[in-house]
Amino acid sequence: MGFAGRLRKRLAVPLLIIGAGSCAVFATSPARADFRVCNATQNLVGVGIGYRAKAGWITEGWWHIEGSTCKTLIEGPLSSRFYYLYAEDAERGGRWDGPINMCVAEKEFKIAGVNDCVARGFQRAGFQEYDTGEQASWMVQLTDEPATGGAPAAAPAPGTNSQ
Asked: Residue 120: helix, strand or coil by DSSP?
């Protein structure tokens, strides 16, 4: 069973949130034009991203991001305004998800299209939408702090354009 499948089987899911921006542990990273995900937890996290390309919708994954580190998912200036993210905690079984359904696979994947996931041999997962406002770079920070009211929280990153 792959990384994503093992995580979906777990029943105890901690309350996890997504925050856009960075914290002190990631503040020393140089500014660059790209889409980065920072893992502010102490656990290994698997991440998938979705976006609209010239040929249509694409989902890609899995990036494995160790605790307290960042990874670049898309290098260079961003070409789309909207990006979609899904992540799973490898150790505690929680996930960062959203209402936008896209396709994922058990192992490394790059999938064209977001319809008929199961019929095409993939799994369906709910991705969270990020409106980058057409900025050249964006950072999402994954945390395990509870959000007020149970809703995902987004916090601005001081001195950046990352919402």
From this structure: coil
Work out the mean pLDDT of the chain and round it to a whole number: 78
pLDDT tens digits, one per residue of 57-88: 999 999 999 999 999 999 999 999 999 999 99
Q: What is the DSSP letter of 145?
A: S
What residue spans define the domains of the chain? Answer: 3-145
- The helices-and-strands tally (H runs, E runs) of the chain is 1, 11
**SS3 label, residue 4:** helix
Q: State the pTM of this model.
A: 0.73
Q: What span, in angstroms and rounded, lies between the C-alpha atoms of 55 and 43?
A: 35
| C-alpha closest to that of 83 among 152, 122, 135, 44 | 135
